[in-house]
Amino acid sequence: MLGGIFSFHSSWKNRQDIYMHKPKPLQCTSLNFRAFQFTQAMLFAIEEINNNIDILPGISLGYKIYDTCGSIARGVRVALALANGNEDAFALSEAPCTRSAQVQAIMGETSSSSCMAIAPVIGPFHIPLISHFATCACLSDKVKYPSFLRTIPSDYYQSRALAQLVKHFGWTWVGAIRTNDDYGNNGMATFTETAQQLGICLEYSVSFFRTDPPDKIQKIINIIKISTSTVIVTFLSHMNMDVLIHELSYHNLTGYQWVGSESWIFDSQTAAMDRDHILDGAIGVSIPKAQVSGMREFMVDVKPLNTSNNQMFTEFWETLFSCKFKQTKSATGNQRKCTGDEDLTEVHNSFTDMSLMPIFNNVYKGVYAVAHALHNILGCNKTCHTNVQLDPFMILQHIKKIRFKTKEGDEVYFNENGDPVAKYEIINWQPTENGTVDFVTIGVYDASLPADKQLNMLNKSLIWAGNSYYVPFSLCSEECPPGTQKVLQKGKPVCCYDCISCGEGEFSNSTDSATCDSCHPEYWSNEFRDGCVKKYIEFLSYEEIMGALLTAASLFGTCMTAAVAFIFFTYRKTPIVRANNSELSFLLLFSLTLCFLCSLTFIGQPSEWSCMLRHTAFGITFVLCISCVLGKTIVVLMAFRATLPGSNVMKWFGPTQQRLSVLAFTLIQVAICILWLAISPPFPFRNFKEFKDKIILECALGSAIGFWAVLGYIGFLAMLCFILAFLARKLPDNFNEAKFITFSMLIFCAVWVTFIPAYVSSPGKFSVAVEIFAILASSFGLLICIFIPKCYIILLKPEKNTKKNMMGKGAPKAL
């Protein structure tokens, strides 16, 4: 014996209990043809099993079906009636056997809330409750509902499928409406959780029930009107959706993209109520289409129902054919009398509509699951062992383990939670020319596949809200293009943000980037901040104008020094050359040549050898140069002292001593350079900090102490030379070289004093240019101040190039 619990009526008349007598039974109203269809599907499966010798041979299945009128309390009552065998006046029963009326399994109920109330009641009896349409994920809890099973997937998967569907079309800003019951609240909770994981935000989430007062539904309408989202996700039962459609049509709320759950998305009755085409273009998930051969014909064959003496079928027949078996005085005159032979082919209503065939198939599979479990328990082969004592717990355990295929090839089994495998079709409402709606399958969802392959959209054209062929947009903020990052708006969901351009040295190469990435140190962000380009490498090169000019100046100074040396060598025997210590003069010219040439080592791409060479060559050549000048200055002073009576000072600073002094001063600088190179030598360095958008190739000092020691020693010799030359500036000789040395040292010191702040503050390659300029300026100062006046006399005033003129005394002149 199988039990059945269905809502043949969807409501009941309100009554006021005065607690003075026992409450009367509910007076049911609003006949629900869907429940009759579910009943017919159950009866079809039972009759097919009873006529099939391959399953339960010699055993007949009976049924005992109750009407709950949509009342949860009545559902609990009839469940207990089925469990303990009490008769009920509202039961439709057929008991082909005479044993106890206790049922082996119960088919139903349709709603999740009813099942959540019934399952705990019959759970202690271990009677299987197999639902065809209760989808709440909460029913998978086997601790609370140990005997509950279902042939429809859990809403846990449907909610995730809806969230992935919304994400697939790029909608991140949606509204949500749900039925205020276990089905809607639990389904929407899972959808909200999954949506947050996928980056989808809900602008609003509201609930209602079809019996709510009108002002509450009006509030929902007002929320929809003021919202900015154009996509509305609904977790509504079909009866609640019918109420909402009526309100939407009244307020003419068109242009919204509706996303629906399986409860209404493929219900043709809901589509028929949408006369204003509010829901055209809706998409959602539905149970896969199914066909059971013979079921359609059986369901519309209502003649056997008419043979029943049950009052319920009288009401059913009268409602189905809009007639009355017994005319009453209050009946309208135009209502015809029922004959019992009416033709169902002339009727077009929800009973003759077969769009819910997938749900009918679920009822069909549930009955067969019980039959296969009984078949295994009774050890049926050609016959069954009828002496086996049937135990509900044993039946429940066998149902959980069964695995079979229906005659249509559908595989039926239950997982550890009593749920079937979750497979859905993605449905699109596409209006037709005659005003009806086609439910077009545009994709499939299979929860058994890997997460990235569960949703598979077919290559079919879709119709969207307002009969548009373009996917609607529903975003709180436009997507951020590459080169920008999202910055959340204060007090709003994460889907509402501003797009801020990436900073310098940062980039984002994808849309809606949460952060900007930093470029590699050798790269810099491009103009649009959507990528990085290699930084421009900068160093003072020969090819650029500044490098070429400095090179030309260096070579010009070298040539000029060589010309002076040639003149001095040509006129080496003349008094002016001989009087100015020709040996130190030629050594000074040689060192000046090296000074001009050493500036060339500062130009070009720095390398390990060029970095060490440029600073050491500069330091040594300049010390050699200053040593020669210092020697010449000392010679002038000693020469003046030698003219005094009784002075023999010149013998202490003769040519040998001059050479040794130059060598000694130079060796000190050589020693400093060797120590510098040995401890921490200069090295090529890629400077990323000086400029953000380019790399400066420069020579790091290595040891700053070594560098400043080299400069300090040069400065010390220059100051010493300046002081000595300044003291000798007013010597009475007609040709006094000391004042020219004073001028040259003044220029030299001025150049290098100004060099230090200029060098420190100059960026990049300009610091190198400043150093080269200082070298060239000081070299030209020495060359011009010391040698050009002599060359002028040699070449243009040869009459002054005489010994007499050199030895003549003249009045001292102020500096």
Can you identify the CATH superfamily of the largest domain? Response regulator
Q: Tell me the span between the first and last alpha carbons.
A: 135 Å
Low confidence ranges = 95-101, 809-815
Query: What is the CATH topology descriptor of the largest domain?
Result: Rossmann fold
Note the main attributes of this structure:
disordered C terminus; alpha/beta; Rossmann fold; 43% helix; 815 residues
Structure description:
- There is one protein chain.
- With 815 residues, the chain is of the alpha/beta class.
- The chain has four domains: 2-153 and 292-413, Rossmann fold; 155-286 and 422-467, Rossmann fold, CATH 3.40.50; 484-534, no CATH class; 545-645 and 653-807, Rhodopsin 7-helix transmembrane proteins (Rhopdopsin 7-helix transmembrane proteins), CATH 1.20.1070.
- Helix content is 43%, strand content 15%.
- The chain contains 23 helices and 27 strands.
- Strands 10-9-11-12-13-16-17-18 form an eight-stranded mixed beta sheet, with helices on both faces. It has a six-stranded mixed beta sheet with strand order 5-4-1-6-7-8, sandwiched between helices.
- Strand 11, helix 7 and strand 12 (257-260) form a beta-alpha-beta unit.
- Helix 13 (357-377) crosses helix 14 (392-401), helix 15 (545-570) runs parallel beside helix 22 (765-796) and helix 18 (608-642) packs parallel to helix 20.
- The chain is rod-shaped and about 165 Å long.
- It starts with a strand and ends in an 8-residue tail after the last helix.
- Residues 95-101 and 809-815 have low confidence and may be disordered.
